[in-house]
């Protein structure tokens, strides 16, 4: 591929019916779009067909994007299709929520700074002031919004205002340590990712590494998942795991888990923003990526 | 090490008190025993000290084993020690319980046949006749003991008779698919290993791969653990894990899991028979091995 | 999917040109074939497009397979396409070559016996008699063809006769321990898989575990690759790896490696027979599978 | 363990002779030192016995450290022992060398900042100015020492001056991208760790990810090793590995490798400063740690 050529991603899902794929590929062909990477999945349980097509325009001038959208869109309705067409180079706008632990935030900011994550970060929001200096070093606006049991609704409203204002595509809870309200979960459906510090569904709720210690497990892990109103029950995107043994005290499990957490979360964000990740009821489809 | 030299393992636990290690090493020194591999662990929670010492006798003639036993044993009492001294070459006698699935049994028998597990297998017991031919190929007595809800006590009694008769050191439930009675669990305390086809405590009980499918996890695993009267709650010895994705149907998870199960179980057996594995309440200590 | 429905795989490669995908999907559509799993890869270096499409016929009666073949084939020529269409249920005929080590053979035969590998095994060939009893247990013809420096050409000719006679689709060197002649390698191009007991290109040639011991590596692995005339240089299909430490003597590395070898080889066979694996110069493309 | 109690590490090696262990344990016992974690290894090839004992003083007042040193030291000579006794809480002084890539440096600095690595970092040295701002953020002196073919000796002399001045215990080449002179390697023998971005001995020298791409390997890794005068041949401490496939271009391999590199390097540093790591000719012994 010529590195200067624009690339696009057409992704979505439809009813599991003959013809939808012919429609996708046919529209691309007619618009002189060369599809070089295709992944599909057909879920028999729910009779939905999931697709992700990466392509580049190889004709003269510019891709007639609107024509492609309307031609595909008009006929896609018959297949009950939900779809998204985007220029691959456009970064998603990601708002990050944190508390005091900095390992996941550090990791995301570093990846962002070296171009390993195609995102913009218009805001970092925290209920603590601790990570302000870090945000500033990366020139990212930091919003300190303290929270108490009484002020929770107002604080969430303030968070929501920022999300709205910056027009966020994705919200990442990078060890935020606060439970979002049902209403907030609903508003962020399919576009909020949390990292939980255990191999779900093994150890839900608080202090999972302490739970793991008590249980004497020989593997500990982390789970990145879409946020849902049922705590630690949202659709799983990625999971990481590391071997441990009897010498791991809770503190050592916490330390060990940091790497697993940040890798699982970074992978989940990457898969999401590259449109490799699809919600499918309480599960996800994640097409292969790097 | 001269391959012909006899090696021994002294393993056990004691109160966490100064002097026990000096006692162990001192006794070995006086008996001209060269300790070449030592691992210890001190559990602060329960104030017990766990040790495993591999050594060889380097003096003239034979090791005065009885003298070593009595000298060590007499003084070890003061440290509330539980200990075991054995010739490394002596194989444990292992009785294997199976149902119809053969992958774990195949694996154990193959390892045994090529000398990768230092065990004897005096009996394979099953509630089904299916694996008789396999047992015979390896020249191992196969006991077909069918079970029904009504005959469960008698069947277990028959199993127990065999275990007694062959003087089994260890009982391995290699996908046996039957729940042992509380009484049987008690009698086999610390010397029965089960393989559960999930990453405990994630998916207890029946059909864990179906549970994993419903939950949409991205990792599936297996857990080898000591049998306890609380089903799938026994002390964990080893756990294995493999990545999966949305394309794994329950059948494919079952297929994927077979390798994880057999590897986790084989490792657990090896650690146990090499005296690397110690019960510690509802947890285990597993010292490094191969 | 209805389990009784026939499924097919259309796989191959073509020039990286606009239109080939439209051709594939269009032909399938016209023949009422529902493509439920698609993977593609475009190699910029060599300008080849690789594709694998799994589909089922959903029309009335039977798929007009010949019509599909001719419609697709005629137009595929313009894209310099190499392709294969097959009924997914048809097993490949696999001839296995072994020496004395049985772990890889045991593994393949067991997977075959439980239906985990969709293959037939019309012949096992060995330069030693040792594994005859195992082959017989599985009711597979065993050919003992001893080899010496002098008789090598004749022995290879005898092997080739068997491969021809049984019309083998694939030849698997399951720790065969003999180097095939250049001529034999050429004849088996793209349809012979070897398992090498190291992480290539790390330790080529003989006794790789001893090499690994001398070097003090902390990971050992195995590599399944297509056979080429340059020893241990063939296109890599799968690689497995396990952590080791300073306590691993060469013997222990050998023992550890057995599991890695058999898993890497079994995976490579599965990917090959499911048409997920493509030769691409001295490399391979392996589309996701289970 | 009472968190306030001082802990110590006695580590080293001796001839493989009866009596050395009795000496170690006996001296500790007499000085009222409770050894709670012991690991030993006996290398038959070179007839050396390696040991690491963690203990705490449980008597009244303070440990008579000098008495322990002299009693042990005097008698240890007869066993040709090389040993080190240290207070566990004393941090090693680590000088870090970098070029322009920041991922390993970021990782080490972050771990240091949260107390995950018990080290001091008195100096960061680079042949480029790029990472100065990062060093300053962590309040660590940054020395920019440019290098050309002509100025290499002077630059190395300047590096050596800094190492001497800060009395460095360890030098870490965190993707330094420069080859040290033989003389420098000699001076840093056993106390300089490099991270190489491949699974040694697979791809030595420059651009290992490009080599891996050309070879089509299915796993890429990183190797942390002690620096020796033979480039990329030093004793291996840790290795990490990640699966890749045909879609990984050299750029994507580089990106994938970053995580493997930083984890392997951080682990190696931790093992070294906790005295778990021993040089043994061209290999290492690494006792279990977290």
TrEMBL record, chains A, B, C, D:
<dbReference type="InterPro" id="IPR044074">
    <property type="entry name" value="PurU_ACT"/>
</dbReference>
<dbReference type="Pfam" id="PF00551">
    <property type="entry name" value="Formyl_trans_N"/>
</dbReference>
<feature type="active site">
    <location>
        <position position="232"/>
    </location>
</feature>
<comment type="function">
    <text>Catalyzes the hydrolysis of 10-formyltetrahydrofolate (formyl-FH4) to formate and tetrahydrofolate (FH4).</text>
</comment>
<protein>
    <recommendedName>
        <fullName>Formyltetrahydrofolate deformylase</fullName>
        <ecNumber>3.5.1.10</ecNumber>
    </recommendedName>
</protein>
<dbReference type="InterPro" id="IPR004810">
    <property type="entry name" value="PurU"/>
</dbReference>
<comment type="pathway">
    <text>Purine metabolism; IMP biosynthesis via de novo pathway; formate from 10-formyl-5,6,7,8-tetrahydrofolate: step 1/1.</text>
</comment>
<keyword id="KW-0554">One-carbon metabolism</keyword>
<dbReference type="InterPro" id="IPR041729">
    <property type="entry name" value="Formyl-FH4-Hydrolase_C"/>
</dbReference>
<dbReference type="InterPro" id="IPR002376">
    <property type="entry name" value="Formyl_transf_N"/>
</dbReference>
<dbReference type="InterPro" id="IPR036477">
    <property type="entry name" value="Formyl_transf_N_sf"/>
</dbReference>
<feature type="domain" description="Formyl transferase N-terminal">
    <location>
        <begin position="93"/>
        <end position="269"/>
    </location>
</feature>
<keyword id="KW-0658">Purine biosynthesis</keyword>
<keyword id="KW-0378">Hydrolase</keyword>
<dbReference type="GO" id="GO:0008864">
    <property type="term" value="F:formyltetrahydrofolate deformylase activity"/>
</dbReference>
<comment type="similarity">
    <text>Belongs to the PurU family.</text>
</comment>
């Amino acid at each position: 591929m010529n590195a200067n050529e624009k690339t696009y991603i057409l992704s979505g899902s439809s009813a599991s019916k003959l013809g939808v794929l012919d429609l996708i590929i046919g529209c691309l062909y007619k618009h002189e779009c060369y599809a070089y990477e295709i992944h599909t999945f057909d879920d028999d349980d729910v009779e939905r067909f999931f697709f992700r097509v990466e392509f580049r325009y190889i004709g003269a001038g510019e891709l007639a994007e609107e024509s492609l959208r309307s031609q595909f869109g008009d006929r896609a309705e018959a297949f009950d299709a939900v779809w998204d067409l985007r220029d691959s180079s456009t970064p998603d706008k990601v708002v990050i929520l944190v508390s005091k632990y900095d390992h996941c935030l550090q990791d995301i900011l570093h990846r962002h700074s070296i171009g390993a994550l195609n995102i913009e970060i218009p805001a970092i929001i925290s209920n603590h002031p601790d990570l302000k200096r870090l945000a500033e070093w990366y020139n990212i606006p930091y919003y300190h919004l303290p929270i108490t049991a009484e002020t929770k609704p107002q604080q969430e409203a303030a968070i929501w205002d920022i999300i709205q204002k910056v027009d966020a595509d994705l919200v990442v809870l990078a060890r935020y340590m606060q439970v979002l309200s049902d209403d907030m979960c609903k508003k962020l459906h399919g576009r909020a990712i949390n990292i939980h510090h255990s191999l779900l569904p093994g150890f839900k709720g608080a202090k999972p590494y302490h739970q793991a210690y008590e249980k004497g497990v020989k593997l500990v892990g982390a789970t990145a998942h879409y946020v849902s109103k049922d705590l630690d029950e949202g659709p799983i995107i990625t999971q990481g795991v590391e071997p441990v043994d009897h010498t791991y005290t809770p503190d050592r499990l916490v330390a060990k888990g940091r790497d697993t957490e940040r890798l699982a979360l970074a992978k989940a964000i990457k898969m999401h923003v590259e449109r490799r990740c699809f919600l499918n009821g309480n599960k996800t489809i994640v097409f292969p990526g790097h």
